[in-house]
Amino acid sequence: MISLNIEKTLGFISKENVFAYEAQVKAAQEALENGTGKGNDFLGWLHLPSSITKEHLADLKATAQVLRENCEAVVVAGIGGSYLGARAVIEALSNSFAWLQDKKSGPVILYAGHNIGEDYLYELTEYLKDKKFGVINISKSGTTTETALAFRLLKKQCEDQRGKEMAKKVIVAVTDAKKGAARVTADNEGYKSFIIPDNVGGRFSVLTPVGLLPIVVAGFDIEKLVAGAAAMEKACGKDVPFAENPAAIYAATRNELYKNGKKIEILVNFNPKLHYVSEWWKQLYGESEGKENKGIFPASVDFSTDLHSMGQWIQEGERTIYETVISVEKTQYSLQVLSDEANLDGLNFLAGKHVDEVNKMAELGTQLAHVDGGVPNMRIVIPALNEESLGGLLYFFEKACGISGYLLGVNPFNQPGVEAYKKNMFALLNKPGYEEESKAIQARL
Ligand code: PA5
Question: Quick one: fold of 3-37+226-412?
Answer without folding.
Answer: Rossmann fold (3.40.50)
